[in-house]
């Protein structure tokens, strides 16, 4: 059983989920980011151990064989995984965890920890998503078409999720995500020991 909030945040590329996650992490000090392992090469400003632990395929394979991952998936040709140890360490420190992972990982974590809160971030409409992807100015038409097709596939996974947050106006979406996290802190399974204590007190 989960001993703290496990907040999973998923959404298609370009939807703005990383900015939403950053805003939530800034506002809620009990919440920390689960740092994944990945075989993807490090990008410009990324720091090893902060955004990801960057490892080679051999290292990742070894961890997989040792069953070190609570979930793992292949995304755009690279491996990504969440070590079980990260979750246990956070609980020991009394912290809640935020997972910025894809829907395959969300499915595995929900199977393993059914009390986890899973949130899908969706664009107000696909035209807006396309405009945001084009606005980055980094991808060719072909890559953008691929990302839009992947977005539709990701949105099809909505039955997996407990909540769907529309990211039209950023501040509004950040507030909704914060509300979901705060409510999750009050889930029955996290309050059980406390309520049982109250009952015992009354005996
Ligand atoms: P990026 O390479 O752009 O940082 O991430 C690519 C995708 O992989 C994003 O959707 C991100 O949420 C997802 N991702 C990052 N870490 C993990 C992880 O540990 N597990 C899974 N399943 N997906 C991850």
Give structural notes:
α1 crosses α7 and α5 packs antiparallel against α6. It is globular, with a radius of gyration of 18 Å. The longest helix has 15 residues. It is of the alpha/beta class and 203 residues long. It has a single domain, classed as P-loop containing nucleotide triphosphate hydrolases (Rossmann fold, 3-Layer(aba) Sandwich), CATH 3.40.50. Strands 2-7-1-8-9 form a five-stranded parallel sheet, sandwiched between helices. Strands 4-3-6-5 form a four-stranded mixed sheet. The chain is built from eight helices and nine strands. Guanosine-5'-monophosphate binds next to β5, β6 and α4.
List its salient traits:
21% strand, single chain, binds guanosine-5'-monophosphate, five-stranded parallel sheet, 9 strands, 203 residues, alpha/beta, Rossmann fold, globular
| Arithmetic mean of pLDDT | 95
- Tally of domains: 1
Shape: globular
Q: In whole angstroms, how far apart are the ends?
A: 27 Å
Number of strands: 9
Taking pLDDT < 50 over at least 5 consecutive residues as the criterion, the unreliable ranges are: none
For this structure, what is the CATH class?
Alpha Beta
Instruction: Tell me the strand percentage band.
Output: 15-25%
Helix content estimate: 40-55%
**What is the gyration radius calculated from CA atoms?**
18 Å
Question: How would you name the CATH homologous superfamily?
Answer: P-loop containing nucleotide triphosphate hydrolases
The largest sheet is:
5 strands, parallel
